[in-house]
Design brief:
Radius of gyration of chain B: 19 Å
Mean pLDDT of chain B: 96
Structural class of chain A: alpha+beta
Mean pLDDT of chain A: 97
Shape of chain A: elongated
Distance between the termini of chain B: 45 Å
Largest sheet of chain B: 5 strands, antiparallel
Low-confidence stretches of chain B: none
CATH architecture of the largest domain in chain A: Roll
Strand order of the largest sheet of chain A: 2-1-5-3-4
Oligomer: heterodimer
Distance between the termini of chain A: 49 Å
Helix content of chain A: 25-40%
Largest sheet of chain A: 5 strands, mixed
Number of domains of chain A: 2
Shape of chain B: globular
Bound molecules: flavin-adenine dinucleotide, FE2/S2 (inorganic) cluster
Number of strands of chain B: 14
């Protein structure tokens, strides 16, 4: 029998209690146990960034954290991003700028971009690219993603 | 892939962690940030029988400054190092190199102790510690010992740490805050492991000859390596002209391995490039 643990955490504002196998990744727990399939799974070794989500206010690879480690944590996935404010503006800018095509990278890209904007990052294309360097996008070529982030920082995008 | 099954322990303090480490049978892996261990487990390159989660071990956290320099707890995350003025002033080389270590989301969880314990040959931290003459504090039920970085990194993922020991802290000497620092790496994508990189410190004021330079390369060998030949060539000299040429030439004596990115002759060439560029910034 695989070892299990009881965990209690806050996911997108709701308290969740569950019994999880200790070997279960956080992103698999969110997707398969809670049905929050917005966070994607690509490489499972931290390289592609598709599983990036917010744990206690910091972007985290959902594939490199165990669900059992998230006991007591506060998690925000793409499903839990508010429609208003910075997150809403960023999503509007992504649409406006065509910053997504297939959308596979988008949930992780939004999490990383929000961390950059929230920390007061400048509309400096090189700095934005460096911050987003851990998120692969196979469709857009990144230019439109950087455009969208700049739009939010420079106040051109509205939720 | 997913990790194979394992047992999971999350002790409340250091005594609890050390007791498990010395008493339990099997392959016990301490879990710090998980940013190297989890990928290895997901690929089943590593299949520990037990994970010892150090998350609650308060004794392994925190940075303190004293007359002998800094003591950085093993569980201090990269993101905390970058934000702590004690670190950026007491160990400016770490501040200089941090933006090049992985990506923001990895730095949010990865720890200094995890990088030191892992001893990845392409990781920055072991080379930074060699260049600063840092020391590594190990703790087990039988007590504490402190090992110089020069004696700690022994080979590919191989260190002087015994299986019943934890990396407790990193000690940075007081003069690290005053020495000049240089750092340069070449990577295919910002934040990826470097194809070749160098970290160095030296005494003396900017523009003056390099006093007692310490030069360490990463991404070249089976471990981070001191370039003693280049140190000798640059000692008490200006890093220019023939002196610089001799320092670059001396790198051919380093034990250089090829990897996925480049064969040994390319790596040797890149080592010269990063050394020149790191010195240009000093
Ligand atoms: C996409 C990606 C890119 C990366 N790029 C870089 C890079 O450019 N440069 C770089 O240096 N690193 C890079 N890393 C690795 C990252 O820096 C790791 O965080 C770091 O190497 C290990 O730290 P950790 O705290 O995550 O350790 P863990 O992964 O938790 O542990 C690593 C190893 O050390 C052991 N261990 C951990 N803590 C202790 C302790 N206190 N005492 C004894 N043993 C211990 C573990 O058992 C394990 O064997 C990258 C990782 C990813 C996923
Ligand atoms: S699936 Fe987590 S980084 Fe690729
Ligand atoms: S939109 Fe397809 S991967 Fe980015």
């Amino acid at each position: 029998m695989p070892e299990t643990r009881d965990i209690t955490l806050t996911v997108n504002g709701e308290t969740v209690t569950a019994t999880v196998p200790v070997r279960l990744n956080l992103v698999d727990f969110l997707r398969n146990s809670l049905g929050l399939t917005g966070s994607h799974v690509g490489c499972e070794h931290g390289v592609c960034g598709a599983c990036t989500l917010d744990v206690d206010g910091a972007t985290t690879r959902g594939c490199l954290m165990l669900a059992v480690q998230a006991d007591g944590c506060t998690i925000t996935t793409v499903e839990g991003l508010p429609a208003h404010g910075m997150a809403g503006a960023l999503r509007a800018a992504f649409t406006e700028r065509n910053a997504l095509q297939c959308g596979f990278c988008t949930p992780g890209m939004l999490a990383s971009a929000l961390e950059y904007i929230g920390a007061g990052g400048a509309a400096d294309r090189t700095a934005i690219r460096e911050h987003l360097s851990g998120n692969y996008c196979r469709c857009t070529g990144y230019q439109s993603i950087v455009d969208a982030v700049c739009d939010v920082i420079e106040g051109r995008a509205r939720a | 892939m997913k990790a194979a099954d394992f047992a999971y322990r999350r002790p409340a303090d250091l005594a609890g962690a050390l007791a498990i480490l010395s008493a339990e049978e099997g392959d016990i892996a301490p879990l710090a940030g998980g940013q190297s261990l989890m990928p290895m487990m997901n690929f089943r390159i590593a299949q520990p029988t037990m994970l010892l989660d150090l998350a609650d071990v308060a004794e392994l956290r925190g940075v303190t400054a004293g007359p002998d320099g800094l003591r950085i707890g093993a569980m201090t995350r990269y993101v905390q190092l970058a934000a702590d003025p004690l670190v950026t002033q007491g160990a400016p080389l770490i501040g200089l190199a941090l933006p090049h270590i992985a990506h923001a989301a990895i730095r949010n969880r990865g720890t200094i102790g995890g990088s030191v314990a892992l001893a990845d040959p392409a990781a920055e931290m072991p080379a930074l510690l060699l260049a600063m003459a840092a020391r590594i504090e190990l703790v087990s039920l039988s007590g504490r010992r402190v090992v110089a970085a020069d004696d700690f990194f022994l080979g590919l993922y191989e260190t002087a740490r015994a299986p019943d020991e934890l990396v407790a802290a990193i000690h940075i000497p007081a003069d690290a805050s005053r020495r000049r620092v240089g750092f340069y790496e070449l990577a295919r994508r910002h934040g990826d492991y470097a194809m070749a990189g160098v970290a160095l410190t030296a005494g003396g004021a900017t523009g003056q000859p390099l006093a007692s330079p310490r030069i360490a390369f990463f991404g070249l060998s089976d471990r981070a390596v001191r370039a003693t030949g280049a140190e000798a060539a640059l000692k008490d000299a200006q890093p220019a002209g023939d002196t610089l040429g001799a320092a670059v030439d001396s790198l051919s004596a380093l034990p250089i391995n090829g990897d996925l990115h480049a064969p040994p002759d390319v790596k040797l060439k890149l080592a010269g490039v990063v050394l020149r560029r790191a010195l240009a910034g000093m």
